[in-house]
Amino acid sequence: MTRTPNPSIFKDRILNYLKVCTGFNQPKVSRELQSQWNLSDVTVRQTIGLLRDDGEPIASGPKGFFYATSPDELESTIDNLGERIAVMTRRRSMLIQCQNKMKEDDTGQRLLFTDLHG
Question: Which residues, other chains included, contact 38 with Cβ-Cβ below 8 Å and sequence gap of 6+?
Fold first, then answer.
């Protein structure tokens, strides 16, 4: 079994690489970052996430990741993350509803109404 490297050890490398290629016109696709350091797509995306968690302005679009140099360059990434949050929130809510429908009381009777965990 291949062990996935810890994404935090690649933060500086990927950040510096993206800083050299700044702006919307110089995006780097995940495959390029993967081949640069022999990483999986998951590790690249986790590393990008950690950089964003650190407050780095890493933007993304259909052509790849880039180091944003203006507020406008971050706009579509911010919008995309908001849309993904909404979808995940809806899916979480639906799964909680399913879970609640499956709950049973002490006698084995299914409960019709249970508290939703918000």
Answer: none
Which residues span the domain enclosing 11? 1-69
CA 17 to each of CA 52, 58, 77, 113: distance values in angstroms, whole numbers, following the listed order: 15, 12, 19, 54
pLDDT digits (tens, 9 = 90+) for 45-84: 999 999 999 999 999 988 999 999 999 999 999 999 999 9
Position 115 scores a pLDDT of 56
* 2/31 same-domain check: yes
Judgement on whether residues 95 and 42 belong to the same structural domain of the protein: no
26 and 44 inside one domain? yes
Q: Which amino acid is at 18?
A: L
Q: Is residue 64 packed enough to be buried (19+ CB in 10 Å), middle (13-18) or exposed (0-12)?
A: middle
Instruction: Please state the domain count of the chain.
Output: 2
Dist. CA 5–CA 87, nearest whole Å:
29
